[in-house]
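Suppose you are handed a protein chain with no further information: no name, no annotation, nothing but its sequence. What can you learn? This example shows the usual starting point.
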Amino acid sequence: MCLGIPGQVIDLFPDNDQLARVDVTGVRRIINIGLLEDEVLAAGDWVLIHVGFAMSKIDEEEAAVALASLKLMGSGLGDEMEMLRGTAS
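A reasonable first move is to predict its three-dimensional structure. Written in C-alpha cells, the prediction is:
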C-alpha cells in the first residue's frame, strides 16, 4: 500500500525547476516536483507527496479530505494501543 501525503506549495526554486518547498501539516520540506512537468505549479497549490516526490496536483478540498483521513487513521491506532494497555495481564 502506498500512502500519499498532501502538501501545500510554499515556493518554487527559480534556479532548479525540479524542486519546491512545501508545508505538510506545519512542517516545511523540500520535495521533487519533476514528475509534474506538465502541470503549472505556484505558491498555494496542493500536491500529493510520496517518498519526497509530488505525484499529482490536487485541489484544496481533496487535500483536506486526505489530511482528515490521515488524522483519523492515526487517532484510531492511538485508541487501539490504549485499549491494549488496559487489557494487559
